[in-house]
Every structure is written in C-alpha cells, then in structure tokens.
Write a structure and sequence with these properties.
Fructose-1,6-Bisphosphatase, Chain A, domain 1, D-Maltodextrin-Binding Protein, domain 2, 7-stranded mixed beta sheet, 36% helix, 7 helices, globular, 267 residues, 14 strands, single chain, alpha+beta
C-alpha cells in the first residue's frame, strides 16, 4: 500500500465516520433501557452499537472490496491473515454513551502486510477526529500531533481503565494504582481505551495502561501514539499489543520508567 493510496482511503473513512457519528448523536441520550442487551457481566450493547457496525462494514467494504473484518460483534475470534483487515469498534465507550456521557468514539484501523497501516478515532460528541497513517504522522482535526520534550513521572497525568470482567490481577492492579497515585500528578479513567490512546498521542495524557483489552479497543489508538512519536508495548515491553490483552502507551521520555513501574506489578 502506498502513502497516497492510504491517504485516499483515510479521507473516505473520515467521511464514513462523520456519517455514522451523526447517526450516533441523533440517538445519544435517547436510548432507553429496553434498547439495551446485556452480553454478560458489564458488557452492554445497544441497537445504536449494532446499527453503527453495520453501516461501518458496508462503507468500509465499498472503500476496500474483499477486505476482512475483526470486531466485537462480528468475527471477534478471527485472526489476522494475508487479506487486508479492518479492525473496528463502532462505539467504544458504550456504557458512557448509554449514561449520557460524551466520552465515546468510533475506532477503525486497517491491518495489512503485517502491520497497522491506518487508524482513526472519531469522537462525535466532542467534535474531534484523530487520524494516523503508517509513516505519515498523526493528526487531530488535521493538525499534526508530535510528542516532544521531556516529561517527568512526578509531573505526569496517567490514564487507565478498570477491569470489566477479568479480576484475576486485581490485587497487583490496585497496588500499581496506589503507587502511581503517590508518584504522579494523578490518574484518570475515561471509559474508552480508544480515547485514552488518542489523548496520549495528543499529549493530554502522558501515559496509559490497561489490561483485558481486545484488538478493536487498541488498534487505531496504538497507531496514533506511534505516529505521534510515542511508545507502545505490552506489559513486558513486547510489540504484541493486539492479542496480548494488555497495553502501555507513553510519551517517549517517560516510556522506560513507566514500563518498569507497570512491569514490576503486572508484567
């Protein structure tokens, strides 16, 4: 895939996200309890989630015919192979959406030739679109994102997420939370990993970590951080973040110290 080709597709995906985001905004704060299906402990889905995914899949198939999909509602157990594959979350932050909070996003990434090639996180309620192309940089509403300078852990703001259903490492997770409370400016829990990663790429957060995540939660955001010049790994410092169900993202000057903190507790 060439850079001009990816740029063309990215523009088309942005338009698709804008359209689906408008649909979501029409129903935001109007979805009732009877419209919600419970998929299990703390996993919710609404008709908005399902309809958004259908619209995205139709639009992405039109952009790249013959491409495959991995998503929470469609093909969640699929593996990445030879075919170009869209990794999508039509509504990351469903619980926020259902409770009237504006922190939710459409997350789309394109995997091909062994790596993430394109990523977009569109937050319709906040009017922000984060985009990235492999080798082409990261952007927020068209303005370049670049992580520069030095950040000390003591001056950092950290984002994280709380486990929804996998509580096996709850004790060391709380130990790490306690450690970071004492050694940073503070921690935030937004309820959308896609937005956490996008905000890290934008320098709003200096680092982010979470466990129990799926490929569609992190694919687009991870590319955003990388293209902004940031650091991305699993808790052991490895490159497998899509299927390892754990991720660290950080400002480059903070990366090794932060990785060590997380690895000591959770690695």
């Amino acid at each position: 895939m060439t850079l001009p080709q990816l740029q063309t597709w990215l523009g088309q995906v942005e338009l698709l996200c804008t359209s689906v985001g408008s649909f979501q905004m029409q129903h935001w704060q109007t979805v009732k309890s009877q419209d919600i299906a419970d998929k299990g402990l703390n996993q919710l889905v609404s008709f908005v989630d399902k309809e958004s995914e259908q619209r995205l899949m139709e639009g992405l198939t039109s952009i790249l015919p013959g491409s495959h999909f991995i998503g929470e509602e469609y093909n969640p157990d699929s593996v990445l192979g030879e075919h170009p594959t869209w990794i999508i979350d039509p509504l990351d932050g469903t619980t926020n959406f259902l409770h009237g909070l504006p922190v939710f996003a459409i997350s789309i990434a394109l995997w091909d030739a062994g790596s993430l090639q394109l990523g977009i996180v569109h937050a319709p309620a906040m009017g922000e679109t984060f985009t990235a192309i492999r080798g082409g940089g990261a952007f927020l509403n068209g303005k370049p994102l670049k992580l520069e300078g030095e950040v000390a852990l003591s001056q950092s703001l950290i984002a994280t997420g709380f486990p929804y259903y996998d509580f096996e490492k709850m004790s060391p997770y709380l130990d790490l939370l306690s450690d970071l409370m004492r050694s940073t400016h503070g921690l935030r829990r937004m309820g959308s990993a896609a937005i956490d990663l996008a905000y890290t790429a934008a320098g709003r957060f200096d680092a982010f970590y979470e466990m129990g995540l799926a490929p569609w939660d992190v694919a687009a955001g991870a590319l955003l951080v990388e293209e902004a010049g940031g650091f991305v790994s699993n808790f052991s410092g490895g490159a497998n973040i899509l299927f390892q169900r754990e991720i660290i993202a950080a400002h480059p000057s903070l990366s090794q110290e932060f990785l060590q903190r997380v690895s000591d507790k959770l690695g």
